[in-house]
Amino acid sequence: MFDFIIAGIQAPIFLLVLTGMTVGMVGGFIGVGGGYMVTPALIVFGFPGYMASGIDVTHIAGKSVVATIRHRQLGNIDWVLGLAMVGGTMMGVEMGVRLLNYTKSIGLSGIALLTGSVGIMVGLFLYTQIETHRAQKKIQELAREGKTVGRELSTSNIPKFFQSISLFPIIRCHVARIVISMWVVVLVGIATGVLAGFFGVGGGFIRVPALVYVVGATTHIAVGTDLLEIVVSGGYGALRHFASGNVDIMAVFFMIIGAMFGAQFGSIATSYVRGPAIRYILSYSLILATVGAFLRLVYMLSAQKYEFLNFFAVVFTLGEMIFLCLFILSLVYFAVRHRHGKWVPAWIPSLVVVP
Amino acid sequence: MAEPSKTKGTIKFVVWTAIAAALISYLWIEYYNGTLVSWYYYKAKSDGWAVNANAFKDAGKDKPAVLQIGSFETIEGLQAVPVKKGDRLPANTNGIIDKKTVEEGKRVTLDGNTLKVTVPMQVKEAKGFKFKDTFKHKGIQTSEWGGAWCVAFILVLGFALGMMAEGFTDMCGLKLTKIKHYEGVH
């Protein structure tokens, strides 16, 4: 047990490092901060609620630096796209926080938050699942025809529409190979920022699909670019949390140590898989987080009568971290087997890359 | 002789490990000598009494904790220092009992030169989570510059750890190459 002087509690270092490691792995792989998983975990470890979110946001900023460095090495970051989006995201986060304060002032915040997040997450899950399934089938068809299938395949036509908007200034994103109006990028930043600010999360789980399905980036580039965004928005969030006295820097430190290992593995693991594999894991992470949020919504709507719902919500959230890590590990394991010509399940070849 | 990329990787790993170790040592020392803690419990956000809430966490209605009021430089045990909004807090403070709470008299009462604490903790709820509401962290203002320093520190630490890991893989001959995003049908 470690004595956290600022938080005024004692908590096991091992659990903090482990949490940092698992969330780092998931975050490095799908490009999210993982705030929706970490905050409940920290509360379970005994940190006060307000401090849990402060520690969470600050560790996300530090962890994202680690993951961004690795994604830069892998060529997954489009700096122009990321920097063009940052301004919009920050503006959106402020608008989201004000919207949240408004809903709080009319006594709606808890239920509005949960209903909204459940709705958005289910919508994103369904769209990502359907589109990714279609993409996977197309990869299988192309492979049967003997064609060399690229690392990325998206069947969505939405990016074509957004890229055709020719509103000055137009930006050229060389890494992502996109030519698009800066206003589209800024508006996507604002929209995802509003949702992030309103729901009190980093917003990666909304921004990665937005970068793929609206802007038209490949999934790998969306992941790397989003992590760059999280460094900036997470850093700003951390500053606000420090000013409000919500952070014990030592807890952040232990989580970053764990995240250093996890984020390395998660980031490097992206080089073993195709875009649809990342999108699948992103969609599963969305739906599992939704189930946790839904249990909590029912708990709140039932006037907090059924304590077991709250308990299951926490258990589900913690279980989700482990499930996603196992999923990523198994994908890498099968990718390595496939590279060596060994047996793999039938659904694996369309999701992994053979150099 | 090692390959040039491995030699470069080794240098990168050693340099960034040294930087990361220096940063971690700095954090450890500053946390335990109280500098980072004093940035956290920096100023009073409201009028009231600065206290160390750990000293009376076990108090109750049947055994109230009696805090001696005075102008102490360091709060030791059952002591309280009157503060006004914006005052620097004495050492070892970790919370403020504000005037309003004392005026209400439900948890703390003023009795001459002492404060009598009867309810040091109550269970409250926020965002669906129940939590223990104590006097710890109450009414305190952190140092803005201290906060900015800590955020900068975390980002630099993340950078050092990231570069260290990159150096490690290069040193082991696992130098990663850029992903070819646009090869084949896509």
TrEMBL record, chain B:
What is a biological process (GO) this protein takes part in? molybdopterin cofactor biosynthetic process
**Chain segments annotated as transmembrane:** 12-29, 145-165
Source taxon at top rank: Bacteria
List UniProt keywords, sorted A-Z.
Answer: Membrane, Transmembrane, Transmembrane helix
Name this protein carries in UniProt: Uncharacterized protein
What organism is recorded for this protein?
Syntrophobacter fumaroxidans (strain DSM 10017 / MPOB)
The root-end lineage is: Bacteria, Pseudomonadati, Thermodesulfobacteriota, Syntrophobacteria, Syntrophobacterales
